[in-house]
Write a structure and sequence with these properties.
Helices cover 46% and strands 13% of the residues. By secondary structure, it is of the alpha/beta class. It folds into two domains: 189 residues, no CATH class; 420 residues, Alkaline Phosphatase, subunit A (3-Layer(aba) Sandwich). Strands 1, 2, 4, 5, 6, 7, 10, 11 and 12 form a nine-stranded mixed β-sheet that branches. Strands 13-14-15-16 form a four-stranded antiparallel β-sheet, with helices on one face. The protein has a two-stranded antiparallel ribbon with strand order 3-17. Strand 14 and strand 15 form a beta hairpin. Helix 1 packs across helix 7, helix 3 packs antiparallel against helix 7 and helix 12 runs parallel beside helix 14. The model has no long low-confidence stretch (mean pLDDT 89). Bound molecules: zinc ion (ZN). Zinc ion binds next to loops. The site of zinc ion has 6 residues, from loops.
């Protein structure tokens, strides 16, 4: 009887100790931090908050059970061995045990501090300094604990504890509570899921609008996207919020302009406090998949994985990315899903594929070999005026071939949805994050201006029983998220989103292209702000280069650029001096917009070597 009582007491103490360890080591504290940082209670996204605790609660329970068994084993061993040990050996054993606990603590605390607070890589001086500080602090407590442990009469303590009446209750209550919470959270994640369509959201990086058949291009680059546009809704005048990936995709994800979400510069992260499309759709009960063919600017490093259950972020071509989608397809069918696909083939350095020679006359090696083309080389040759017209045409032809390759792979997705009879229940979005300059304004690539070749994007919505229409109203990509939500029968203001749904005609201001389109957030050179209103466009070149790499050799623009988009759609003739009245009208609208936004706090990270290398291959450094 006495033995049973003792065993129960030891197990109870073990459970209690495990419960405490589990609190610290299960990720529960991190989950509280994440739910707070992501403001899930502010947005009332309770399912998301609950799901955040699913894993930590399970781990907590597991740690509690394992710890009680380990504790039992250790005390049993100690009892068996201790009579034969000298007091000196006992002391050594105790020191080793305490040492093991503190070593584990050092790894745990060090990792947490580096991961969540410092954000630096292992060998950064600040990180090493933090590690040394933690080590010194823990060494001090280690010595203190060893000293104190010598003074405690362990055996007597256990006996006294075993006599306590409430020792069992103190152990059982937390375990039962944990179990109930765990089951509760699991069940809560399963009920009240949204009944709307699945969403397949496709972004083709650096695809300019006027290189697709459905936008009037004559080269046959996009038969499948054209067919999709014929069945669904095509927006003829869609604009991205920014001329490069990070701010633009951040706007697609959050329905916020870059001056609000603040993921603008190369080292900015998307703040935790914004609510993303993946978080919203997960809260609506979808499983969420992020499939990115290797643009690291939207990877985990920059916090774009918020709300995604599955994250893939590796440099692969369109065929392999589509393959990834198809291999996940059986899993996707298990429940309502949201898949974000980000194709990189149309972005430098391009990929080798069967369409490389489709529009090009003959290969111009070695500088222009797909997969190896360097933005730096082309920039250098451009500035030295050493690119012939044939060189330039060749690069455009390669670009067009890449579009054809992606187009073919989008068809594989569509036909899979069709053959599984799922297209009618799946909203398909095809768009891009920005365009690409082919010397329209003397230069190449993207991220450096706000001219139309960089901010006009394709936008096609299809599937989900949509009927064909062609919409001429000017629309911004910030309105895409509310549009998707409306198709899922979710009111955008449930998630504090202001943007209008684009499919409801009354939400579009008019078909006379009067909606105001704001665009900003350059990657290189100075920060620029742009506004298109009516048939006019204003660009303010701020001269503020903070946080951005220099643009060497580029023509300096006057502070204000003002274009008449009807008369001068190619934006060649700056009317800032000649049409001051209209310009100041637009400037007022833009100023008001910029002053009206209370932004999220922008946070920067140091880009580690590996990420930098990856970004370099895309021409970013
Ligand atoms: Zn991009």
């Amino acid at each position: 009887m006495r033995n049973v009582k003792k065993t129960t007491a030891i197990l109870s103490i073990g459970i209690f100790v495990g419960f405490i360890i589990g609190f610290f080591k299960s990720g529960f504290i991190e989950a509280v931090g994440q739910v707070t940082a992501n403001r899930y209670f502010f947005y009332k996204t309770y399912r998301l908050a609950a799901l955040m605790f699913l894993d930590p609660l399970f781990k907590w329970l597991l740690i509690t059970i394992i710890a009680s068994l380990v504790f039992f084993l250790v005390t049993w061993l100690a009892e068996k061995l201790s009579p034969g040990l000298s007091s000196k050996n006992k002391k050594i054993l105790m020191t080793i045990l305490i040492g093991a606990v503190f070593a584990t603590l050092f790894i745990g605390v060090g990792w947490t501090v580096n991961r969540y607070w410092i954000h630096y890589t292992k060998l950064h001086p600040l990180s090493l300094l933090a590690d040394v500080a933690i080590l010194v602090l823990l060494a001090f407590f280690f010595r203190l604990t060893v000293k104190m442990s010598g003074k405690i009469q362990w055996k007597a303590l256990f006996h006294r504890l075993a006599e306590k009446k409430h020792i069992k209750t103190a152990a059982i209550v937390p375990v039962v509570l944990l179990l109930l919470l765990d089951i509760g959270v699991f069940l809560y994640g399963k009920i009240h899921v949204n009944e709307g369509p699945n969403v397949v959201f496709i972004v083709i990086d650096a695809l300019r609008q006027d290189h697709l058949g459905c936008y009037g291009y004559g080269r046959g680059t996009s038969p499948n996207i054209d067919a999709l546009a014929q069945e669904g809704v095509i927006f003829k005048n869609a604009y991205s919020s920014s001329p490069w990936t990070k701010p633009s995709v951040a706007s697609l994800f959050t329905s916020l302009y870059p001056n609000k979400h603040k993921a603008i510069d190369g080292n900015h992260i998307l703040p935790e406090g914004v609510l993303t499309i993946a978080e919203i759709l997960k809260n609506e009960g979808c499983s969420t998949f992020f499939l990115d063919a290797g643009n690291n600017y939207i990877g985990k490093k920059f916090n774009f994985h918020q709300g995604f259950d599955f994250v893939f972020n590796e440099r692969i071509n369109a065929a392999d990315l589509t393959g990834k989608f198809l291999s996940l397809f059986p899993k996707l069918q298990e429940r309502r899903f949201f898949v974000y696909l980000h194709y990189m083939d149309v972005h430098l350095p391009y990929n080798k594929n069967k369409y490389n020679g489709l529009f090009a006359q003959k290969m111009r090696k070695p500088l222009f070999e797909p997969g190896k083309i360097s933005h730096k080389d082309i920039k250098r040759l451009t500035l030295a005026n050493k690119l012939s017209i044939e060189d330039k045409e060749y690069l455009v032809s390669l670009y067009d071939g890449q579009i054809r390759f992606v187009d073919e792979n989008i068809e594989r997705i569509i036909s899979t949805l069709k053959s599984n009879n799922m297209l009618k229940d799946t909203l398909v979005v095809v768009t891009s994050d920005h365009g690409e300059e082919f010397w329209d304004h003397d230069h190449f690539e993207h991220g450096h201006t706000l001219y139309d070749e960089l901010i006009r994007v394709p936008l096609v919505l299809a599937g989900d029983k949509l009927k064909h229409s062609s919409i001429k109203t000017r629309v911004s990509s910030v309105d895409l998220l509310p549009t998707v939500l409306k198709k899922l029968n979710v009111k955008p203001n449930k998630y504090k989103l202001k943007g209008a749904g684009l499919l409801n005609k009354s939400n579009r201001k008019s078909d006379k292209l009067e909606s105001s389109i704001f665009t900003m957030g350059t990657l290189r050179g100075d920060e620029k702000y742009g506004l298109i209103y009516g048939n006019k466009k204003l660009i303010i070149n701020t001269r503020n280069k903070k946080g951005k790499p220099k643009l060497i050799g580029y023509r300096k623009r006057s502070k204000f650029e003002f274009y008449d988009m009807t008369r001068d759609p190619l934006e060649k003739e700056n009317m800032a001096e000649n049409d001051r009245k209209n310009m100041s009208r637009l400037k007022n609208v833009l100023d008001k917009f910029l002053n009206n936004e209370s932004p999220f706090k922008s946070k920067r990270v140091i880009i580690d070597k590996k990420t930098k290398e990856r970004l370099k291959t895309l021409g970013y450094f």
